[in-house]
Design goal:
61% of the residues lie in helices and 0% in strands. It is built from five helices and no strands.
Length: 80
């Protein structure tokens, strides 16, 4: 607690404002998107590829995301 008071004093802010600032910065890091997903969202696809959208619908559970699929693939590939 003394460290928080000292940091707040050095920055001319209250401890509660310091805490709020730290929580805000921490939450920004927590909500940062996966770089692979960001790259995917920026990609442009040809019409042929877009036509394949939805082909696998119903093949995998709706709550399974690409991280789960990647984990399953790697688990099978490496015999874990």
């Amino acid at each position: 607690m003394e460290l928080a008071k000292r940091i707040a004093s050095n920055n001319n802010i209250s401890v509660s404002k310091l805490f709020k600032k730290l929580i805000t910065e921490f939450s920004k890091k927590e909500t940062k998107k996966d770089p692979l997903l960001e790259r995917y969202e920026q990609m442009e696809f040809s019409d042929d590829i877009k036509a394949l959208r939805g082909v696998l619908k119903g093949k995998y559970p709706d709550d399974m995301d690409y991280k789960d699929m990647k984990y399953e693939y790697l688990k099978e590939k490496h015999g874990l």
